[in-house]
Amino acid sequence: MPSLFQLRDRATCKYDLLALGEIMLRLDPGEGRIRCAREFKVWEGGGEYNVARGLRRCFGLKTAVATAFAENEVGRLLEDFILQGGVDTEYVRWTPFDGVGRAVRNGLNFTERGFGVRGAVGIPDRGHSAASQLKPGDFDWDSIFGQSGVRWLHTGGIFAALSDTTPQLVIEAVKKARQHGVIVSYDLNYRPSLWKSIGGKKRAQEVNREIAHYVDVMIGNEEDFTASLGFEVEGADEHLLHIDLSAFKQMIEKAVKTYPNFKVVATTLRAAKTATINDWAAVCWARIQEVSRPGNT
Amino acid sequence: MPSLFQLRDRATCKYDLLALGEIMLRLDPGEGRIRCAREFKVWEGGGEYNVARGLRRCFGLKTAVATAFAENEVGRLLEDFILQGGVDTEYVRWTPFDGVGRAVRNGLNFTERGFGVRGAVGIPDRGHSAASQLKPGDFDWDSIFGQSGVRWLHTGGIFAALSDTTPQLVIEAVKKARQHGVIVSYDLNYRPSLWKSIGGKKRAQEVNREIAHYVDVMIGNEEDFTASLGFEVEGADEHLLHIDLSAFKQMIEKAVKTYPNFKVVATTLRAAKTATINDWAAVCWARIQEVSRPGNT
Amino acid sequence: MPSLFQLRDRATCKYDLLALGEIMLRLDPGEGRIRCAREFKVWEGGGEYNVARGLRRCFGLKTAVATAFAENEVGRLLEDFILQGGVDTEYVRWTPFDGVGRAVRNGLNFTERGFGVRGAVGIPDRGHSAASQLKPGDFDWDSIFGQSGVRWLHTGGIFAALSDTTPQLVIEAVKKARQHGVIVSYDLNYRPSLWKSIGGKKRAQEVNREIAHYVDVMIGNEEDFTASLGFEVEGADEHLLHIDLSAFKQMIEKAVKTYPNFKVVATTLRAAKTATINDWAAVCWARIQEVSRPGNT
Amino acid sequence: MPSLFQLRDRATCKYDLLALGEIMLRLDPGEGRIRCAREFKVWEGGGEYNVARGLRRCFGLKTAVATAFAENEVGRLLEDFILQGGVDTEYVRWTPFDGVGRAVRNGLNFTERGFGVRGAVGIPDRGHSAASQLKPGDFDWDSIFGQSGVRWLHTGGIFAALSDTTPQLVIEAVKKARQHGVIVSYDLNYRPSLWKSIGGKKRAQEVNREIAHYVDVMIGNEEDFTASLGFEVEGADEHLLHIDLSAFKQMIEKAVKTYPNFKVVATTLRAAKTATINDWAAVCWARIQEVSRPGNT
Amino acid sequence: MPSLFQLRDRATCKYDLLALGEIMLRLDPGEGRIRCAREFKVWEGGGEYNVARGLRRCFGLKTAVATAFAENEVGRLLEDFILQGGVDTEYVRWTPFDGVGRAVRNGLNFTERGFGVRGAVGIPDRGHSAASQLKPGDFDWDSIFGQSGVRWLHTGGIFAALSDTTPQLVIEAVKKARQHGVIVSYDLNYRPSLWKSIGGKKRAQEVNREIAHYVDVMIGNEEDFTASLGFEVEGADEHLLHIDLSAFKQMIEKAVKTYPNFKVVATTLRAAKTATINDWAAVCWARIQEVSRPGNT
Amino acid sequence: MPSLFQLRDRATCKYDLLALGEIMLRLDPGEGRIRCAREFKVWEGGGEYNVARGLRRCFGLKTAVATAFAENEVGRLLEDFILQGGVDTEYVRWTPFDGVGRAVRNGLNFTERGFGVRGAVGIPDRGHSAASQLKPGDFDWDSIFGQSGVRWLHTGGIFAALSDTTPQLVIEAVKKARQHGVIVSYDLNYRPSLWKSIGGKKRAQEVNREIAHYVDVMIGNEEDFTASLGFEVEGADEHLLHIDLSAFKQMIEKAVKTYPNFKVVATTLRAAKTATINDWAAVCWARIQEVSRPGNT
Fold this sequence. Notes:
The structure is a homohexamer. Chain A is an alpha/beta fold. Chain A is built from 8 helices and 12 strands. In chain A, the strands form 2 sheets. An 8-stranded mixed sheet of chain A has the order 5-4-1-8-9-10-11-12, with helices on both faces. Chain A has a 4-stranded mixed sheet with strand order 3-2-6-7. In chain A, a hairpin with an 8-residue loop joins strand 6 (108-112) and strand 7. In chain A, helix 4 (166-179) runs parallel beside helix 6 (200-212). Chains in contact: A-B, A-F, B-C, C-D, D-E, E-F. At the A-B interface, strand 3, helix 2, strand 6, strand 7 and helix 5 of A face strand 3, helix 2, strand 6, strand 7 and helix 5 of B. Strand 3 of chain A pairs antiparallel with strand 3 of chain B, so a sheet runs across the interface.
């Protein structure tokens, strides 16, 4: 997307992309089910981090992640995974562990595959995580964006829903990014369970609407735009059996008027027929009149 | 130990033993280390529960456990393990899960084996567990001890250290046990990390001293008696390289005078030479003058 | 099906269901084939027991199994699986092992998955099993059905085909069940290999016809009704490529006239297109005029 | 041992050694115990066959095995192992399988490692095996020893203890071997559990004494010579904690007088200190005056 | 195909088929990808050998392989697999290993499964293998075909492409086979990467055209006939999405005129829709007028 | 060792240490043996690289490796391991793969554990590797040492023995290191098999003696100093059963006189009693009069 964005010059930037978010240890029982497992494979995962990892390992870009872990063996295992992922760990903050997991923990996520009529299952166990306790001031954005140099910041609505402090950190980060000419992408990723005990959908909309003013590339499906930003869409398929884009397109039209800073709006769309057979589609809107801007990379 | 205790008649009791405590999911990387694992075997474990499991599977006794889990797949996996252990689950309480692990969780314990000069490692991740939120009133002890019938209650100092409410529950349970003629054993098992944020050693001693008045069989090594009950012992081997029982025996003499209700005091003792070579010993004191009591089972 | 059956009151019954049958150790080579395996996963399984396990773990009912094992480590492994399955083991009989497997054994079942044009394979190794040597008098049905209390007895044609003594035990059990108001279900499950050396189809029909008089819920497909009970059905699809119920329905009409005690007749039906793609259907006939009976649970 | 035996010329023999015995599928739970295994590694094994395999894979000799399997997937898995072992399968007899395991089976052996004070455990499940049903006439020894050519026959007391027919087969084989100039070795390997239901120690001695007259190399420890051949030895260490050869040597003296056909008597000796620490020794007596015989290989 | 070929009498032949080719150790990461594997399953494989193995294990024929390995543990592992495959190893040549893998190696092949849009991947690592260094004179064909006796020789275009010496060995072998009345089959199996550094397609055609004059059964698809033998075919489906045989049939007509020695021309044909869904077909041309030849087996 | 070396200032250096050497994929059959493995665990390894990995993961230093891989999936797997090891990959050179492994490969190393009297085994398969083809000019040392900044270069005698070009590259590197004030350590690590076909011990000594003039920290045992540098030592224990340092110390005295540039000479020493029980020692000589040098870090 060369001409849509005024990406900073690679020569002046240590990283092509910085992801801001939580990384959890994913526990996966393989072919079987969690409730009778005797063995779990482990992986790392996190909506915001996954973007940094994919860009590094599939496309060879230089990426880093800003996050925090409790300083224990589980945190070190997560670091081991991030290293393997090729994502730089210099902005990982290490919080002293209390030896119990009361004050601070590392986030876990138990997941199992669906099969036929049985859906896939995810059991997040991420309360009180070091990442959820991140707050404004924890990262020196001027040093990161200014001195080290970053071309793109990616963060999202899951991280913003982790606590009372992460929304403030996200807002701090996206404002600083804008200041330093760093392109900002944001994945709305609305999760009711995360918002429930910290203000619900009302609070989610307050947070996300403020963040949205600093976003260049907004990612989200119909439900995300509706729940996180308060837009309304008619005729959505509740049962997720068909992919119909017309209503969604209308809503995007509204959104890009409300937020003239959006340069791209995109999402993938899935219609699950069974746990193993899914239809996939993707939609991407781009503010192409901006193509004529001079001076792009 | 037939004549030391007036055990209730087996015919009137559904269970030979009830354990009160937390059960954690144990994650075990096998031969390797947690910090570079890609697979974990899982097991269940918990100091109090392990007694109930061992009595069932090695000695064929009927046992049950009083505990609580968050109602999710991880809790159900723990239930699966308890069933396999042959320990009855009727006194497992199921707490609604919040979908995040902020309000309530199931306790986890990452453990790895030592090797040569490198010690074994345990990383408990048990804060905010359903079991730690158990409180007086959660179990109907009159129904359990009276109607169903239980011959022996086993609980311990780890469970009493989980929160501000578990000490009260332990005290409620041991008092009720005494009332119903149920023998009480208690494993002091002092863990500084657990007490640190809920009152420290001072609070540990308050709690354990109160509980001790209702205990028939007290289990603990020198450190446990010192830290949990405030006894002092001279000449303990800090480096745990030798097993010397004389000082410990003196301390037991003091303890059984302070607590005339103690009928047995016992512990296992380990001197770790390397992570793989350990010397083991065990000591057991019994108030044998009680042998003459009539009417024992 | 609340009003079809006069189920006994749950309050007076220790178990919702008791299964009578054999449980085998299932050896499963996973993705590969038995004939070049170097590792087997193990599970427990048995047509009658599977019903008790499913009701316990999927629906939370209280179930038990009446069976027998040779008293050795393999038998104890089977017990370990049954415990994990949540099925009570109090009616498991333990037969002394001869150290060789000549006089008594535990049943095994090697099974492998089909793939494409290659069908699934099962190699039972169940001769001389402890369960096959069960005989009338081995269980105290009055104590089980009367004192402990059972609401439903499930057994079937596999167990009845194990030896010369198991048919008599089944007949004893279903008669006693009827006496105690216990609903009886029976899965015909005709297996020519089992009957071959103990009287063939002729003996199978003698046995199953006698049992049928005490059955409330009869389970079986066309082949089961034909081979086990001697009914005839026209136009069955030998190659199992299509599911056509009309002929089967006619046969059910005949069967429920012959056996007025049948309250429900049901089965699942599978048409295997390849080893991995199957069409499934199910049919269930119910004697609905019985709905008006008063006093049902 | 070139000059002790008049080994047949290699050029005229298809096989250096033929083993006659049963081969079982060995199921091995690895580090854990059978009674809570969820996975078994499998291997093949059998006292007589192991000699043929070792000579082939460690010393490169040409060997074959005379045995029988039930013709099913388990039998084919055993064949797969024998092929991997490099032992020729042309004298494996395939018995039709009855689909149940009543009439004929393949022998299994569940084994687990000991640990510290817990001894190793083996649970043979070999009753009714195809090998145990082998009988005189099943192999054409004149063709095998005469036409194909075999230099050495190895068999043993386990195979001879499998049934009422295997002793006769062993006697037939060793007589024919002698006739064809084939050296015979025999491993006494006394197992009370095998003999118990087919005549006990009395029958064991009848059988082994007859066989002994045709044996060149007799293998067995003190207990084997005592129980299988009726010799007596004084001062044996019942607890197997020390290896003392003097009594054993005296007994060998007696044996080689009774059986002047013995050219070598040998055994390994183990003193088990714990399940993991054992002392090993070996003893070998040879009738060395035979060295002077001319014409040896 | 009894009457197409004058197969030699089984009674005079030690082997039904001899395969001449390389066998590689196949390293397989299972469900995952090579580039992040931590574990590989291993198998043996090789186009020519696979035919010998299949005939032995699926159809019970007696087969052997003529090949070479470096004498080290990896070579011995390959031998272990060939033994398991039931293929005789007497014509395996063992080349001294240099301890480094500079002068001689054993061929390896890393392979991973495709998934959806991602194709399967194979990474051969077979340069400098012992098999690629085989040359005329390495096998005593008169002894193999004449004295031991072989009914059918199978070799192919992969082996002929391994080096400058293997083509000469193949030509030597097929000529000698013809001399001894051994039927010859040849799988063209054109691989551009193998020919690239030893003469390219031009050299491939020289070699294969010479070999073709001694072949009875020629195996190859359109690309094989075109690239290896220089025939031209019109309208081939480059994208391999459909199977259209008409053009291929025309080309076969031309081929069997050019090479009147061809008695059968055959191939399997695959149209890959995705990495997991493929359409399969097969085509076989036979020179049926030869049916009338007298004296066939 | 702060005052022995004038280490460059950390602030001006991107890396604490750069390792120059080959990294191989290590294939490990676990508990069993290579020759009957069906599964291998994989790891990365290489004498020079291991130092960089250990400093990064155990001591938190910043390290990188200068090496080369063939550009294929196996090379990418090695990269995946290096990333996990936390060692920077910017100086990894990627050589185009020929699709066969004739022109260029990635080095492999099959290794198995010893057991009791059976020694451990390693089967390197590293001929024609990309790393062995590295040559002077392949790395821009002025940019690496000068601009990026490196404090310590570690390389060794295995890498110098890989081919005719790697010695020249090592000499180029150590000279440049000296020029830029980079401390140089060198592990002699003499391997006869590597030198055999490229000039033998004579060439080994030529190469190592030249390199030795630029080394600050020389690592090697008695055999290394003898074979690689031509020093002689008396009374070495050929059977490696005892560790006797006196002769070794005398030889070090000679060596540090010959090479006044050596500041440290060190090695670990192992006396193998069995494959599993080893005595270990270490020896380190330091030129301590240099402690008085001013201006050290």
